[in-house]
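During the first year of the project, the team set up a workflow for recording each protein of interest as an amino acid sequence followed immediately by a discrete structure-token representation. This format lets reviewers and collaborators read both layers of information side by side without switching files. As required by the reporting guidelines, we include two representative entries from the current panel. The first entry is reproduced here exactly as it appears in our internal archive.
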Amino acid sequence: MNVLFITVDQWRADFLGAAGNDHIRTPNLDRLAEDAVIFNKHYTCSAPCGPSRATLHTGMYPSNHRSVRNGTPLNESLTNIAWEARKAGLDPTLFGYTDTSADPRGRDPKDPVFNSYEGVLPGFTRGMVLPEHCGPWLAYLKEHGYEVRKEGYDIYHPDPSFELAEGEHITRAPAVFKSEHSETAWMTKKALDHMTLIPGQDFFCHLAYLRPHPPFIATPEYHQMYMPDDMKKPVHFGDVDAVADGHPLMRYALDHIKESTFYMSGEGVMKDLSETDVLQIRATYSALVSEVDHYVGSIIEKLKSTGQYEETLIVITSDHGEQLGDHHLFGKLGFYDQSFHIPLMIKLPQSKGGVRGEIIDAFTESVDVMPTILDVLGQAVPRQCDGHSLLPWLMGETPEKWRDAVTWLFDYRDIENSGPEKRFDLSHNECSLLVYRDDSFKYVHFAAMPPLLFDLRNDPDETTNLAEEPDYQAVVLDYAQKMLSWRMVNEYRELDNYLLSSKGLLSGSIEQWD
């Protein structure tokens, strides 16, 4: 059995044709969906990149693994998807990145592993690593005749020969490199070489695409694929002060999200963009998604031509979403669905049977991915895992008990500069929020700031905070209690279901609903 585990960075759930988006062109993923199952209410349990991947790769809630910011070390005593897959005789090989920050305990502070938070998750063989300095890919571009002035994202400046029309946003301009030389194409080729090197030999390939992560710029073949007028307009947009007044954290975020984070030569802050500018960025983002779709399609076709497709477990998801101007925000942050609602598509090997072309509307979380892969491989799920295998759903079965809500943690501490800490007079450990969301309400609990409550049935765009409304105090109490119960049940529990007794070592169930 083969495993193809793909993450598409910063990919929102609503940018997939098979999931109901009628403007995005993802024909290859849509065809794959005919052989797969889409989990339509899938959420990441944390953001940004490092924390979300720590959750994905350990199967643990961020409140347990505690790698809560980019650069926060991941406890090296924890197991992960790579170590566990090795027990099945597979060699998990990485193409891309895992953004794993090394555990400093037992290491000298001068160890070069601390020069970057973009470490590789232990257990993975390095197929091709793409760090933020982009060194290997930039070397490839130089070999193909491109001028590479310096490392990093400098290559993402737009083609200077392209003339923008008056009023057009800079993200409409194309990149200087062709699609066939993009980091997406380059990573795809490296992964394909690995998967088809020895036909018939089992592989576990983890392909972590950068796109559609910013900088938002598309290649010449894709940059005009979508028009701004064809894009869905951002929600809760037009009155930035109304968004900022909704919560102190939103005011802080809107004041600090810089244009330069999302495209080269950007100046100022993203909250000042016009709706026209936002729509162009959405068009460029859509182009990046379609380009990824094209290259995923090339992998699927190659696996089919080599006879490997049928017996390959394919899992395609994202680390987190992207605000794309909704609520005047960009990036991945806070408590809005746009940052945490992500795609998940799983195709079982043919020998496993199961259903095809189904869409599941039950709540699933990123902690479920590791248990699912291991379950399909016939491996035991480690006790540290907080998630649950989705294999019953894939087999057409409905579990007797399943979660009716999702949760996520967002930590906004700033160890380096203490920005939020100074702004709100908080300690590092007070800079966090926890979300409890079901089909009816979203409750957001802050460690040291006022809570939020949104009525999702009557206010699906999350525009009105009801936490202070007298008529909703019973709801606030109810959801605060649900969150507390959830947290108590899901404390780190690797040892608490063992018992040393007169009968020897006893082991209890770790399933929260058993």
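The second entry, processed by the same pipeline in the following quarter, appears below.
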Amino acid sequence: MKQQRASGILLHPTSLPGPDGIGDLGPEAYRWIDFLARTGTQFWQVLPLGPTGYGDSPYQCFSAFAGNPYIISAARLLDQGLLKKSDLADRPDFPIEKVDYGPVIEWKIKLLKRSYKQFRSIKQKKYLDTFSSFKESQKEWLEPFATFMAIKAEHGNASWSEWPESLRKRDPEILKAFIAEHQEDIEFQNYLQFIFNEQWQGLRSYAKKKGIRIIGDIPIFVAYDSADVWANKELFYLDQEGLPTVVAGVPPDYFSRTGQLWGNPLYKWDLHKKNNYQWWLKRMASVLNQVDIIRLDHFRGFEAYWEIPFGNETAEEGRWVKGPGQDFFSAVKTQLGELPIIAEDLGVITTEVKQMRDDFNLPGMKILQFAFASDPDDDFLPHNYPVNCVAYTGTHDNDTTLGWYTSAPEREKDFCRRYLARSGNDISWSMIRTLWRSTAAWVLSPMQDFLSLGNWARMNYPGNASGNWGWRIHPDAINESLVNRLHETNYLYGRLPEDEKESIRKKLEEQTSGQVMPH
């Protein structure tokens, strides 16, 4: 993947400001794109965009193909005539800097049902035609997903493992009868996906016009309680009742002493290979219809993954099992050509994983917060970066930079201050500047670091099942001072878009024209 020096910001849409308790795809998202463009920042990295379930994690979604209806914008529905002003009159007072998911979900579902009722009543041809076209073009994943969500709603949102046996095992006659009886509920799910797609594609188109590329995220594993597993049981290690026999995670590492027990079902890679990885290729194509570049989460799992017996309480006991390896990426390359993939190669990385990454010329990831626990030979220190990498101050799984520095051992803080040649008083921006001037082609930082926020703004604690994914930008956080500071940093370290660099060069030439330059 060809890389020119550029920078980006990691911010999930749920973290945007807005009146409905959660960031969405409305006016604030467009203002966000404007902010990126004004600062010369060329990348917006998001987390997975799927519909979240228990724990609200974007890494545990009800579908690997569907969009999250909770980030549909009420303001845009109002503009489209799909909501009335009176529909918003009973909007609750939501926290400004945190997503309180319970009340938010209750409110958004209420709004979306009002919107669907309005959609059904107006029957405008432009909507009905595009709705029909969307359903037809996406039916391979949309039909099972919409049915899955309707069944889930009918059974109090219980996991599909708790449904009646006939529905768990997808008895054709029972499914047919359910679909006939719940057509309106299924159509509502279709509508939500249609509206999400319309709003997201509109925002993506705007970003493209502004020169902003979007980096998306594909978790290697999918949630057990998902339409993907329910509709494709043969592709996963499940018993006859549909329960996993083994599950995913990682052994103990610097994130967790007992490892991370993710609990996702594991793939039967031999069957995927036999089908030429068709399910995976469709998944990749679907995400690339939403974003420009994919961060492939847990890249090392394609070479070998940690298999944990189902029922274990931690990830400490397990075994490494070979994944599909280079054969998988060869199949993806055959379909996609140049691979628009960032390899999330963090953790304990073997020679085989590095070889797989390098054979396909995929940029790996570097995390600056990891750099100060050893010595100057540490791979995470900027002077050791290869050009072909994507470097971060931290990711959604890390503390904020200020939070990290505040709680780091004194030895690490001392090494950090000496390396940065700074006092530590403005640690977030000191780290940003050091990263930006590195040789890494692409550099990114979570928005929390640009705002110099502490631990309270952390997005996720790996291994914690709840209390994550809630941080939001304060509506007044983005101001002219921040715009100017970030633009200056992008300019100084050669990370502005080429056309903007050229414009600045011409202005400098005009300013110095006729002047005698000092020797």
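For the second entry, the following points were noted during internal review. The chain is about 40% helix and 10% strand. The mean pLDDT is 95. Both points are flagged for discussion at the upcoming steering committee meeting.
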